[in-house]
Amino acid sequence: GLSQYSSDPRTEWDLSTYSTRDQVLEAVRNLRYKGGNTFTGLALTHVLEQNLKPDAGARLEALKLVILLTDGKSQDDANLAAQTLKNLGIEIFAIGVKNADEAELKQVASEPLELTVYNVLDFPLLSSLVGRLTRVLCTRIKEKSNKENADIPVNMGPQLSPTDLKISAVTSKSMYLTWSPPLRPPKKYRIVYYPSKGGIPKEVLLDGAVSSLRLSNLTSHTEYLVSVFPIYDTVVGDGLRGVTSTLPLSSPRSLRVSELSHNSIRLSWKAAQGATQYLVLCSAAPDGAED
């Protein structure tokens, strides 16, 4: 499988798209280079959520390897995203070209770094790495193949994904999520949520035995996108997705004016639920306006 990235990662083909070596090599020859920015953290998250899942061809019993090829320093937090992958047992090999930051490559890559970090001065020199990298990758797979869970059956994709996401108890600042767990309980759940019109994604990690969550400290009157991903030892199951809007803040009601004098008035109103203070604005009405 292969994804390219700049500021927006793009899957070129999934793990299950081609079944022969010649087909993969032909796809590489036809690949169009994607220029642009270098958001490596976003790309690693894309690979985890989109490429390393059962319906994209990721087999539970197979060792998961990610080979990162970059020619620049990341413009976001690549280390945090890489650590998420490594915590799930996914091995990362980091290959730098030209202006790549070697310190960042070493942060992103799995141990031992002498086998997983490579750096060359220009793209044509990548060919010099092919033989060694191939041997290292095959050796790592052989070393770990006996340690993988041999009792995990193949083609369990539908059994790995939660179902029936429900969003309830929505207020101006919070909402409550519930879902039905998959047949095979995950190790953890990763819940990602953010405003649909743009905003920084936030995430929560939950124990795999839990299947509900209250999201709080949200922005009022805002549409949110919510995703729930089940995380297993070596794979991320298909996610559940939902969308809902928080309620607008409640308003004060029934404004009344009383006790008028030549330089004062008294105002009264019904309280707005949850309000801690009120801002009262007063200005002279323009000539001819209603009192």
TrEMBL record:
InterPro entries to which the protein is assigned, alphabetical: ECM_Assembly_Org, FN3_dom, FN3_sf, Ig-like_fold, VWF_A, vWFA_dom_sf
Pfam families: fn3, VWA
Membrane-crossing segments per the record: none
Domain Fibronectin type-III: 161-250
Residue ranges the record marks as coiled coil: none
Domain of life: Eukaryota
Record's keyword terms, sorted: Extracellular matrix, Secreted
SUPFAM superfamilies reported in the protein's UniProt record: Fibronectin type III, vWA-like
Gene3D superfamilies, per database record: Immunoglobulins, von Willebrand factor, type A domain
Keyword Secreted: yes
PANTHER family: COLLAGEN ALPHA, COLLAGEN ALPHA-1(XX) CHAIN
Protein name: COKA1 protein
Organism: Spizaetus tyrannus (black hawk-eagle)
Gene: Col20a1
